[in-house]
Design brief:
Layout lengths: L1 H22 L7 H32 L5 H32 L9 H27 L7
Helix pairs in contact: 1-2, 1-4, 2-3, 3-4
C-alpha cells in the first residue's frame, strides 16, 4: 500500500508540480501548443492514475488492521473521479478553444483541478507515510 500511494504521489508531484509549470517557461513554445501538450499529458496521467488507484484500493481492502486506509484510498479515488469526469473534460474543451484561436470566458476549473490535485497529494502522502510507519515495529522507529 505504501509503495503504490507514494509512487502515485511522486507522479503527481512530477507531472503536476514540476513538468507542467516548466513547459510554460519555454520561450519558443506557444501557449496553444503548451496547452495541447498538457492536455495529452494529463489524459495519459489520468489513465495511469486509475491503474494505481485500483492497486491502492485492492491493497487497502486486503490490508489487515484498521479500515482508515480504505477510507483514504476511497477519498483519493473520489478526487480522481472528479478530475476525470468533470475537470479534465472542461479543461480539454478550454484547450480546444485556445487551439482554435478563441478567447476563453472566465472559469475556475483550473483552480478546482489544482485544489483537488493538492488534496489528492496530501491523502496519498499521508496514506503512504502511515503505511510505512505501521510496517515498522514501534521499538524500531526513530
Amino acid at each position: 500500500m505504501a509503495v503504490v500511494a507514494l509512487v502515485w504521489a511522486g507522479m503527481v508531484i512530477g507531472v503536476s508540480g514540476l513538468a507542467t509549470p516548466v513547459k510554460f517557461e519555454v520561450a519558443d513554445l506557444t501557449l496553444p501548443v503548451a496547452l495541447e501538450v498538457g492536455n495529452v499529458t494529463f489524459q495519459l496521467m489520468n489513465k495511469v492514475e486509475w491503474a494505481l488507484g485500483a492497486l491502492l484500493l485492492i491493497a487497502a481492502i486486503i490490508a489487515r488492521g484498521p479500515r482508515w486506509p480504505l477510507v483514504m484510498a476511497l477519498i483519493a479515488l473520489v478526487l480522481l473521479a472528479m478530475q476525470s469526469l468533470w475537470f479534465l473534460p472542461a479543461l480539454a474543451d478550454r484547450v480546444a478553444i485556445v487551439a482554435a484561436g478563441g478567447t476563453l470566458p472566465p472559469a475556475s476549473y483550473h483552480m478546482w483541478y489544482v485544489l483537488s490535485e493538492a488534496m489528492k497529494l496530501i491523502v496519498l502522502l499521508a496514506l503512504g507515510i502511515a503505511a510505512i510507519r505501521r510496517a515498522i515495529p514501534q521499538d524500531q522507529r526513530l
